[in-house]
Amino acid sequence: MPDAPTYHIDRDAFWRDPYPDLAQLREMAPVAWVPELGAVLITRRDDIFTVEKKIEAFSSDQPEGLMTRLMGQNLMRKDGDAHQAERRAIFPSVSPRTVRDVWKGQFEEFTDRILTRIAPDGAADMVTLARELSGEALIAMTGLRNMSWAEMDRVSQGMIDGCANYVGDPAVEARCHDCTASIDRHIDGMIEELRNAPDASLLSVQLQAGLSMEQTRANVKLAISGGQNEPRDVIAGMVWALLTHPDQLALVRSGEKTWIDAFEEYARWMSPIGMSPREMRQDYELHGVTLKVGTRVFLMFGSGNRDERVFDRPDVFDMTQSAASSIAFGAGPHFCAGAWASRCLIAEVVVPAIFARLDGLRLTGEVPFGGWAFRGALSVPVAWG
Ligand code: HEM
What we know:
By secondary structure, the protein is an alpha+beta fold. It is 54% helix and 10% strand.
């Protein structure tokens, strides 16, 4: 057991609302062993901002980790040169220029098509709608045009469940294998077409860069596992947050604030990815605690983004405070490769279109939230017209 102070949590209560425990941890034990999670948690924003860059000590390479075992070793589970080489290979697919010149037009096209289809319904669950929008965006960006959005959503969730399956449930593991096999089949079905007509998709740029099929498959699976639920949760969550904070919506409508401001503040406040794991490769001392080689460490982005040492009103959704120090997309060499695409999809295209096209948008029921490693609304029932 690490020599960090021990802090116990109630797993169910933590899943429902992690913030009270995270505030306690920041205050009393910013480096603490939490037996119920089997890891040492680092909870203060500036500590995370510092240690995420110290890759020689805080390693992303976890060969025995669930993600690597189930999905293959992707770029997020590599350090140093090996990591940077694959980041360079995928950059042409996720760069700000490609997002502006290639993806934005496609995002606008399917958003218009989907909103036109649902407008006559007069009501929906924003989470279901956001799953479809997020899935369509991933189909475009990965190059798996032979996959449906529902299958994209299914395989993403199956892999996420597999990577969080610390209890080793065989049914969850089998479903994850079925999902990765489905992705492999869809990749096989697209290779010839993309070799003949290369494009900016994640699959194609990796083929063009000459990465091995093992690397290429693992990185496409990574984008699917890390690029479906997060945009879904921000789209549905932003709609809920703006409808329950009419003063904030008024700031955007008056032009005093922008949709990007709303996006950054929501992503800070509700951090769709609340945690990222590291394994100690060198002993490292932090707040008097020595993190020894082999220790599993959780960098708690969701806590850092509520750090009262950094944010004026951390627990409040308020665009009048600065979100510039937000670490919602990470804080080091593994900074989210999909950040530009996400900002464009959500804040430049989808959420503005939802508020512009669905007149009189209003909530029609309860909105429960859940999760600490991944956090979002479970359902956002709305009506319009
Ligand atoms: C609002 C949406 C999103 C949020 C909040 C988010 C958040 C994050 C965070 C916190 C990390 C860093 C993890 C770490 O430091 O270990 C990350 C990494 C990553 N994200 Fe995202 N993400 C989002 C959307 C996406 C999308 C749409 C894609 C795919 C196109 C994507 C692809 C990736 C990749 C490939 C990495 C690994 C980067 C690396 O290791 O170098 N993300 N994301």
